[in-house]
């Protein structure tokens, strides 16, 4: 049996951009290995799954999983799996979100969306299959104690389902043309975008040694603030960045009359809110001192991202 590699053995001194690239490359390789081969039957579905998942993306959720794994000295092999698992769920959500019955979009990550490149039925099956594959991988890997593994499966299921991402999407679809107040908007985003981001952080930490109760509570607080920060920045970018830079259709939310932080607060107050959330997220990491440095860097990456 091979000795597990603790990812940060050399990585702790690596500059952030280099670390980020190395995690992105690891996740890309793991996804390429774990997705069904393009030539295996049913070929069209497997090609579409690979088209969707392997074509770019910032890999923010995998990066968060790896960075949280540094808090608990988690083995790299486990982090590769949980990072890929959350990315598979994220990719599924994007494919379904782009369908004509939802956001009806033609561009994603700078390329035609899955249903445009293939067809609607295939895109539906791609989402279904990516979700199933995520749970298969999470159940298959050895994470040590089976009770912990069950907790991880439950956490991901809760984050993806009607009390998490799918539920948030349902509220999103119902809210078109309506004015939500700030707590309502926050709830929608805590579910739609925040739940999976929180799951990425907690799953990464669960790959290593146990955290103390105050540490776990602080990490959870961080994850919730970081999820909301991600969304506020996304709303700002939707109305300030170009389609070419975003790789997806810019100005979509306003055109679809969707409530956003910018429509609710205006651009300046939305920027102030992002700055406040960044401060709150960083304050939650204080308990981890230098072990939390990657999460600090990632918080800044999420705040300053341009696409
Ligand atoms: C269909 C069940 C179901 C859920 C869809 C997450 C979601 C719910 C829809 C995505 C729509 C969207 C644009 C939400 C805003 C925040 C978000 C998730 C942006 C895309 O994530 P990035 O920026 O994308 O991490 P990349 O391409 O970098 O992976």
From TrEMBL:
EC number of this enzyme: 2.5.1.1, 2.5.1.10
Taxonomic classification: Bacteria, Pseudomonadati, Pseudomonadota, Betaproteobacteria, Candidatus Accumulibacter
Gene Ontology BP terms: terpenoid biosynthetic process
Top-level enzyme category: transferase
GO cellular component, one term: cytoplasm
A Gene Ontology molecular function term of the record: dimethylallyltranstransferase activity
Protein's UniProt keywords contain S-adenosyl-L-methionine: no
Official protein name in the record: Geranyltranstransferase
The entry's keywords: Isoprene biosynthesis, Magnesium, Metal-binding, Transferase
Names of the cofactor(s): Mg(2+)
